[in-house]
Amino acid sequence: MSGGTIAIIPARAGSTRLPGKNVRPMAGRPMVAWTLEAALGARTLDRVVVSTDDPAVAAVARDMGLEPPFARPAALSGADASVMDAVAHALDAVGGAWDLVVLLQPTSPLRTAEDVDCVVTACRAAGAPAAIATSILPKPPAFYGRRAHGRLEAAGEALADLRIISGAVYAGRPEIVLSAGTFRVPGCLAVDLPPERAWDVDTAEEFAACEAVLVARPG
Description:
Elements: E1 5-10, E2 25-26, E3 29-30, H1 31-41, E4 47-51, H2 55-63, H3 83-94, E5 100-103, H4 113-126, E6 130-135, E7 145-148, E8 151-154, E9 164-172, H5 174-180, E10 189-192, H6 204-216
Parallel strand pairs: 1-4, 1-5, 6-10
Antiparallel strand pairs: 2-3, 5-9, 6-9, 7-8
């Protein structure tokens, strides 16, 4: 395909702190399914590719109509594997010339299809090299302080401009982000999404928190 937007969902089998987390049941379905659902519902994506070395993840994707087009190589599936290397491999494996590549990590199960569209649309509209989902700090600046020589000092209003990189959605021009080895390139946009959907699952506690949110989510 020439042009368009492709999304890569990297879901390797291993996890150091929470083994098997991608297919661990979360609110009645494997955790990775929440990301697959968001990708399938996004109107700005022309193709969705699941990159995995895990037969269990592949089975979940297949059941949702997203047959993985290749098996992720073992060299790109270990604990030290770079997600950008996995993105590069996926783009090379499927071929085509894409205007934008979108990275959707399974560890952000609360992100919605609308969130994906928001980041992609912002990147396109601005003609930016990349755009990353961010969120504001969970509390106003007055709740934060700076510890100096054991004493608490005001952190200052500069905190109002600080953002958390949620990891929920990354979008960028393939030739730019692959060359840099990151989506955080000069000129990258920060696109604020609701903080309550900005969770990144890396521990059992974070997994439980996200599951509770999904169980309580309307509909």
